[in-house]
Amino acid sequence: MHQTDKFIRALEELAASYAEVDYQQRGYHVEVMLTGDQLRRFAKLMYELEYYLVFVSAVHAAPALEGRYQFAHFDVRSRILARVPVGDDGSLPTISDIFQGANWHERETRDFFGIVYRDHPYLEPLILPETSVDLKPLLKDEQQLKNLEEICWPPAAEEEGETSADQEKS
What we know:
By secondary structure, the protein is an alpha/beta fold. It contains seven helices and seven strands, in the order H-E-H-E-H-E-E-E-E-H-E-H-H-H. A hairpin with a 5-residue loop joins strand 4 and strand 5.
C-alpha cells in the first residue's frame, strides 16, 4: 500500500469516501470523494503530507458539475484524485492560499466552466477576454450532458469483480 497510515486515518477523520484504484489504468492511486465543506481540510492534509498540486479542473456531466484536484508526492509514487461536486450556487472554496499553483488553475477553471472559487484573491479572467465573461466554452447544453458513470472508469471494485462495498471505504 502506497499511502501512509496517517493519510488513511486523516481521510477517515474527514469522513471522506475513498477507493484505491489501478494506477496503470487511471494514472492515480486513490480516488477521494469530498464535499465542498471538506475540500480545504483535505488540501491542508495534502500540504502537511508534502504532496504537491498537479492540477485543478472540472468535469461537466449529469448530475452536476464536478471539481477535480490531483495531488502527487515527490518522494513516494503516490497520486491522489479528489472529486468535489460543485454546489448549487456554482462555487467551491479556494485552495489558492494553501497551494499557490491553485491560483492559476482556479482562474482557468472559472474561465472554462464558470466555477466561482470563494475567497480567491484575484479571480479575474485568465485566458478569455474580459468582454466574454459569460462565455463558458466547456459547459455543455443540458440536453447533451452524459451521465457521470458513462464517462468515468468503472468503480475500482468492478474492475476486480468485487462489490463496491468490498473495495470502497468511507
